[in-house]
Amino acid sequence: MIRLASVLILLLLAPLQAAAFDTKARAAYVIDQTTGTVLLSKNADEPLPPASMSKLMTLYMAFEAIRDGQLSMSEMLPVSEHAQSYGGSSMFLQSGETVSVEDLLRGIIVLSGNDACVVLAEALSEDGREGGFARMMTRKAVDLGMTNSIFINSNGWPAPGHVMSLRDLGLLAHRLMVDFPEFYPMFAETEFAFDNRVPSNRLNRNPLLSMNIGADGLKTGHTEEAGYGLTGSARQGDRRVIFVVSGIDTSAERAQESQAIVNWAFRQFAARPMVSGGEKFADADVWMGSEPTVGLIAEQDYSVLLPIRAGTELEAEVVFNGPIEAPVSKGQQLAELVFAPDGLEERRIPLVADRDIAAGGFVSRMSTVALVLFNRFVQGPEGET
């Protein structure tokens, strides 16, 4: 059965005020990467047309191929007629020419080149075609834990069934930073004059990069169906925020809304230490062990991000399946500390065993069985006294 134990955590916070953010976006998702706290979730799990923001998955797979030796930055890839055929944002590649992988990556990140995506897709595809690469993208999304993403093409060109949720985009942004830190600085580049081919087409479409608010990525998107969107990130001090917005009416509103979200996320929330490594929160009964209970402790320090308006107390519950069956190993995860700060999504912190508990000997095990049988006799067949 599930046993719940309530633990009252006292945080000494000043009861100041912080208003909730009322976004104009059709959907929005904001997460504090440092603590994993979701600050805003509006239609975040709804599969929506992602437009060019889906290029982040193409980039993830290209980075992975470079890491694994399947591609090199200096490798030259051919441009097909299919790649050249795409309209919209472009590197203005010509069929029959070859382009380096490094230029293609910048062409996607800075110039949002639909054609550049297809060149990489055809090079990496299991069948040499963009459609095959799109299927690979969908499988990779599942591997990464993205539950509402299906890809029909490599660049987000409008297509029935090509969808991503904003939570998935936030997760993908996080994985790009964590898995490929060596490539992430490319997202902050403000211009890329590829071959001086079209001098007017050299500027990064991310409006936040020039606002001096710590923004350093990642990708804009726009189609008539999807509206204006942005998967972005900003860092201030020791905190980083990842945010995704979609369904905004104009590019100007997208810039204003994104800037407002970044300012709100950094100014209206504060990180507070909540759990210390080694801190004990509860004892769990042990079944047939050499000792009757085991302590449940946090393995490391954890901080929680709270609205500035938060009061001085935060209630949490220790949740575990009990009793715990022996043997138990020190450091084995047995429980979770569950809490939900006011207005924010639920957080879960793993709790582990504070020591080894061996399986009990014959006498100990027989005593446990006898106690269980006695309790059943006292309570009766229905478990009632």
Count every beta strand, where a strand is a DSSP E run of 2 or more residues: 16
Query: What's the average pLDDT?
Result: 88
**What is the total number of structural domains?**
2
User: Beta-sheet strand percentage?
Assistant: 25-35%
Report, as a whole number of angstroms, the end-to-end distance.
19 Å
- The proportion of residues forming helix, as a percent range, comes to 25-40%
Evaluate the radius of gyration.
26 Å
**CATH homology-level superfamily of the largest domain:** DD-peptidase/beta-lactamase superfamily
The DSSP helix count reads: 8
The SSE string, one letter per element, is EEEHEHEHHHHEEEHEEEEEEEEH
- The chain-level structural class is alpha+beta
Q: Can you give a write-up of this model?
A:
The chain is of the alpha+beta class. It has two domains: about 1-15 and about 275-380, Peptidoglycan synthesis regulatory factor (PBP3), Domain 2 (Sandwich), CATH 2.60.410.10; about 25-265, Beta-lactamase (3-Layer(aba) Sandwich), CATH 3.40.710.10. About 25% of the residues lie in helices and about 30% in strands. It has a seven-stranded mixed beta sheet with strand order 1-13-15-16-11-10-14, with no helix packed on it. A hairpin with a 3-residue loop joins strand 6 (about 215-225) and strand 7 (about 225-235). The longest helix is centred in the last third of the chain and has 18 residues, at about 360-380. The protein starts with a strand and ends in a 6-residue tail after the last helix. The model is unreliable at about 10-20 (pLDDT under 50).
